[in-house]
């Protein structure tokens, strides 16, 4: 049977999270810090626009790029919030979540054997999608520099086949934000060696006590950066599946060919809802951000009190403490924590190089549950 | 102390959950517990925090004797040397009046009035309110059901079904 399936797919590593997922599903009394999405429902004003669209029969396909009104709204939003400017007619493509955007960008850029540099620990989709696009993943371990990729470490792996560098800032799983000075150096490297920076900035709105700089806003970035963003994290819209890709017109036109054949368009009701999100959702976005920030502070203090070292996450809603001093591997730690204390976290090893020795805890959880989970983790660590 | 950003954060947090321990708030805001405690005391002394109270859903407690509530629109006949504040002071004193606002529009005061029975509220309106000096008109609306109070939805909460583990 397996011979009838694609070698490329069979060669994909199975998700390290899967085994864990099966254990947690069905268990009742577990507190999960293993989620990867906001604990808020979509703001009501946004939900009601989606309902309105459905009620008024807006249930058709849209143009492949997406509704022009939605692209215009996104263009204005990006300019206001991140000082980047993209022409809504030719430089923005709406996708089914950022996930689709990552997929079609890689397929647009890569020829067989092309290399893509992935700083790790990283979100789990990049490597497999590079492989599916026929490329080769060049992993770089960022754990020695607090999970921030530096020009030095990249310089040593750049080759004539390097086609792209993937940056995810603020980062899933570490929550770190790449500082502006580093972005400038990374961009200079991309210009020098003529490769693309694929910037997954889906957590850009969720940043605490630092200023966020979009790599796309830097001078000279336009021809070397492909910006990916979406509504899932900022506006608590994970289930709506709406992301977007911003790039020079040639890139968008080519990516749109793949998008048109494989997805056709993003869901129309999500597009109408998104227009409302950028128009009237910003104050709720801010109150959600503040709420994450409070919980971030709480979680960081709690881990410090447990004696676990960590790099304070400046963004997203993840904390990535080191559990090395416990002497357990991240998988054993997570497994025992689940069995003995009924708390689910994600072992760092699933996020690639440099992830081992850490656990990812998502603090987008109800405060009382979060507090209880942390006191259980503290008891677990103390008893080791 | 009451004009600091921390004070504003504390007020926002307390208005959602007034029972959150000071130690938790301190961790959330990244300040010492004493800062939270001192700020709260200062806010209380300055009467920025007037009182800590509860949002109650009486519908969940059938055995509890329910209060009857009404919104009352009150028209005022303005008089020389006598402003709204002066008249309001006379009305707001009644224990039946649980909220009292001066508003723009077709009438002047909006009251929320509470009593044990329809009769109690009716007699408050006819005997006390309508006969108060300068009160020109009253219009009483009994409240039939509570959907939301102090920004909190009353009744069934939304349940989101999130996957427990996601990359």
Mind explaining what this structure looks like?
The complex is a heterodimer of chains A (384) and B (167). Chain A is of the alpha/beta class and 384 residues long. Chain A has 13 helices and twelve strands. The model of chain A has no long low-confidence stretch (mean pLDDT 96). Helices cover 32% and strands 20% of the residues of chain B. In chain B, helix 2 (22-29) crosses helix 3. Chain A binds chain B through residues 15, 17, 20-21, 24-25, 30, 32, 34-37, 39, 41, 123-125, 172, 290, 294-295, 297-298, 301-302, 344, 346, 350-351, 367, 371, and chain B through 9, 12-13, 24, 27-30, 158, 160, 162-167.
Short description:
The complex is a heterodimer of chains A (about 375) and B (about 170). Chain A has about 375 residues and is of the alpha/beta class.
In total, the number of domains of chain B comes to: 2
- SSE string of chain A: HHEHHEHEHEHEHEEEHHHEHEEEH
- The DSSP helix count of chain B reads 5
Per CATH, the architecture of the largest domain in chain A is: 3-Layer(aba) Sandwich
Low-confidence stretches of chain B: none
Overall morphology of chain B: extended
Q: Specify the CATH architecture of the largest domain in chain B.
A: 2-Layer Sandwich
**Largest sheet, strands/sense/barrel of chain B:** 4 strands, antiparallel
* Strand composition percent of chain A: 5-15%
Distance between the termini of chain B: 43 Å
Number of strands of chain B: 6
Largest sheet of chain A: 7 strands, mixed
**Would you identify the CATH H-level superfamily of the largest domain in chain B?**
Lrp/AsnC effector binding domain/regulation of amino acid metabolism (RAM) domain
Instruction: Give the CATH topology of the largest domain in chain A.
Output: Aspartate Aminotransferase, domain 2
Protein structure class of chain A: alpha/beta
Strand coverage percent of chain B: 15-25%
Helix content of chain A: 40-55%
As laid out across the biggest beta sheet of chain A, the strand order is 2-8-7-6-5-3-4
Mean of all residue-level pLDDT scores of chain A? 96
Q: CATH superfamily of the largest domain in chain A, called what?
A: Type I PLP-dependent aspartate aminotransferase-like (Major domain)
